[in-house]
Description:
Layout: E1 3-6, E2 14-18, H1 23-35, E3 37-43, H2 49-60, E4 64-67, E5 71-77, E6 89-90, H3 95-105, E7 111-115, H4 126-134, E8 138-141, H5 142-145, E9 147-153, E10 161-163, H6 169-179, E11 185-189, H7 197-204, E12 209-212, E13 215-219, E14 228-230, H8 235-247, E15 252-259, H9 266-274, E16 277-282, E17 291-297, E18 305-306, H10 318-326, E19 331-334, H11 347-357, E20 361-365, E21 368-372, E22 381-383, H12 388-397, E23 405-408, H13 420-428
The protein binds shikimate-3-phosphate (S3P).
Shikimate-3-phosphate binds near residues 168, 195, 315, 316 and 339.
Amino acid sequence: MDLITLNTKNRGLKGEIAVxxxxxxxxxxxxxxxxxxxxxxxxxxxxxxxxxSTIACFRKLGVLIEQNEKEVVIHGKGMEALQEPxxxxxxxxxxxxxxxxTGILSGxxxxxxxxxxxxxxxxxxxxxxxxxxxxxxxxxxxEDGKYTPLSVRGGxxxxxxxxxxxxxxxxxxxxxxxxxxxxGVTKIIEPVPTRDxxxxxxxxxxxxxxxxxxxxxxxxxxxxxxxxxxxPGDISSAAFFLVAGCIVPNSKISLNNVGxxxxxxxxxxxxxxxGACMEIHKNDTDVFEPTGTITVSTSDLKGTTIExxxxxxxxxxxxxxxxxxxxxxxxxxxxxxxxLKVKETNRIDTVVTELKKLGADIxxxxxxxxxxxxxxxxxxxxxxHGDHRIGxxxxxxxxxxxxxxxxxxxKAISVSYPSFFEHLNALSNG
Length: 430
Ligand code: S3P
């Protein structure tokens, strides 16, 4: 299924779907379940390639993890029960796995080696290696720890005060995991807020963490206890169908059980500002992560500017927002998004290159892109470049293109949304 031909059906997208579980929360449920004491049962776990890589790594660290279509059960025995792996830990395509796992391994008195695929090999690791070394972990890697493979020999960590130089939840989380196992109180200063799933999960597993404005405090030597986690639907996956519902003529789509954590909902603000026909109904029964149902329908859209503190709240949605902007009246400017350059691909390059092939008026800038809307897109051969979010953005583009769109490297989509084409077909026939 690596080369897919897609055609517009022109009947619109209609119906109701529940997008799969949140990727960030699924990863963290395995990590916390593995370092906690007792059984953790996770429902609506995302069975995408990235989260399966996390399970495989923790099994290599000696954790018993049972997994079927309905649930994942982790039999945690506490941090100190993790064992030196006999084999290399392979994170596949997953940046979240390698960065957070490096934080956990930094607190453990044994040796481990981490590798990933060719995309992981290009992604910067200094951002986690530097603070973890400061805490006392011995970490080495290619070009002095800039890139994978990484090798870690942890243990005896000291708490630190660390100001995050990049707005990254992965870096914050790696330090929090290490901080849970360090001597003293670790303080992280987060100049711009990023997703707070790790903080919420520490509390869910019975741990303590506090926040005062931009400062986060976590005490070391905490004991966590296993719990049940129901993973909300992933707003980053929902984003593809939120945009599809707005730009495909004659559409109305409802997405159920979508995570509405305010550190992730930047896309909803953008849709609102651009004039999308959208209704949001929040569930009031949630305790751990907020969720709700979002309904969108075909909309007349106008361009907008996206910059500043909202960027981390929608960083993974920028590829699909770029497609949205091609269908809006006027100009959309995306700024302050340098981080796009170090995602699964350089997403400024891959978004601009692929949308240009379809005839969009889009231009790369140093920290984002400028899109002038209102141009009809024409189908042709395009490429995901092995990046799941670029692949899904192009598959949604196919729904509004004139003629046939051929998507190369479509299989990357299974990294975060294995049932994507099933859902797209269901909505096309809805
Ligand atoms: C993630 C954080 C973000 C995001 C990634 C998942 C997480 O990365 O892009 O897909 O689960 O913490 P950064 O924190 O590096 O920006």
